[in-house]
Design a protein that fits this description.
Pfam families: Mrr_cat. By secondary structure, this protein is α/β, with parallel strands linked by helices. The protein contains six helices and five strands. Strands 1-2-3-4-5 form a five-stranded mixed beta sheet.
């Protein structure tokens, strides 16, 4: 505010200086013009003197009014743009916000009692428990078979399809073919897994073995949940162990 008042004061003083200077210059010019006219026409041109005087007054008034208008014009306001100060050197960058990951608790172990979406979360929670990072539950319409996507502890991309079926409803070859057509080509899986609460038909198991898809049936899922077998992205134990 003080800076603006000083600027306005300087503007008003400069305006009146312009008025005084303009009046002085016009007065000098009119005086010289009158002296010239008096010399040229002499005293015999008595009517010319008043005419010159009237013209001088009119010109003087017009110039004074114009100069006064310039002096009264408000000065340009000072620059009041708001500048954002730069962050001090050494200021740490804001920490990235990490997406929430599933948490395995006592209620998340019963894979058969949750709904299909809850089953996807229990499988994702197992992945997190066993060291996976960037775990996302992406199941839903248009997921193209990728219900859970994660990164294994050794850095591989894991894509899991979850099938919560009753014990008398095994996963068939059609389910495996649909998943096999997208897990590698679309989702770029390095480890592809199908997890179910039931089992797999023989053709489905053969198709999965041919493509390198890991099948986890209900018995293997229970063993994984209880920690009696390694997670599906690790080598399976030899038969009989």
């Amino acid at each position: 505010m003080a800076v603006a008042e000083r600027v306005n004061g300087r503007g008003r003083r400069a305006g009146w200086r312009d008025v005084v200077l303009a009046v002085g210059l016009v007065g000098a010019a009119v005086g010289g013009l009158a002296l010239l006219a008096r010399t040229v026409w002499g005293a015999s041109s008595g009517a010319f003197g008043p005419a010159v005087l009237v013209l001088a007054v009119v010109v003087l008034a017009a110039v004074a009014r114009r100069a006064a208008g310039r002096g009264a014009r408000p000065p340009a306001p000072p620059d009041d743009g708001v500048s954002v100060p730069a962050a001090p050197a050494g200021t740490p960058a804001p920490a990235p916000v990490e997406a929430a990951v599933p948490v395995l608790d006592g209620d998340a172990v019963d894979h058969e009692q949750v709904d299909p979406q809850g089953f996807e979360h229990t499988v994702a929670a197992l992945c997190v428990r066993d060291g996976c990072t960037r775990t996302e539950v992406s199941g839903g319409p248009g997921d193209l078979g990728a219900d859970v996507v994660a990164t294994t502890p050794d850095g591989r991309r894991l894509v899991v399809q979850c099938k919560q079926y009753a014990a008398d409803h095994p996963v068939g070859s059609r389910d495996l073919q649909c998943f096999g057509g997208t897990c590698f080509a679309v989702h770029e899986a390095e480890v592809a897994v199908v997890v179910t609460t039931s089992g797999f038909t023989a053709p489905a198991a053969e198709y999965a073995a041919a493509l390198g898809i890991v099948c986890v049936d209900g018995e293997a899922l229970a063993a994984w949940t209880d920690g009696r077998r390694p997670p599906p992205w690790e080598p399976a134990p030899p038969p009989g162990d």
